[in-house]
Write a structure and sequence with these properties.
It is built from two helices and two strands. The longest helix is centred in the N-terminal third of the chain and has 26 residues. The protein is an alpha+beta fold. The chain starts with 5 loop residues before the first strand and ends in a 29-residue tail after the last helix.
Length: about 100
């Protein structure tokens, strides 16, 4: 038996083929949407003076992980082939001179 890699729908002479990966991503989006809907309701009800537990804690950890990954990817990069790298007359460290890039 062949492996199903797509969902095929036929409407008269029109044939629509939806790939399996699209269906998986659509399912994940729905799942995360439901999770964040209920997490938002729980966060609204939570006492900010108490330690988060359960769904509120899980939602906060997911947000912190997302922020950590995003900040890591958006951080300013240090390029060793930059023209100012070989400038030994400067008193500052070459790590701090990345903001002066003239690309």
């Amino acid at each position: 038996m062949g492996e199903a890699s797509a969902l095929e729908c036929a409407f008269g002479s029109f044939h629509l083929e939806i790939q399996q990966s699209i269906l998986v991503w659509f399912g994940l989006c729905i799942l995360f949407g439901i999770f964040f809907y209920f997490a938002g309701k729980k966060i609204d009800q939570a006492d900010p003076r108490k330690k988060p537990t359960g769904l509120v804690y899980l939602a906060e950890e997911m947000v912190n992980l997302t922020l950590y990954v995003t900040e890591g990817n958006l951080r300013e990069k240090v390029y060793l082939w930059h023209d100012d790298f070989h400038d030994v007359s400067s008193k500052s460290n070459w790590f701090s001179r990345t903001s002066k890039s003239n690309f």
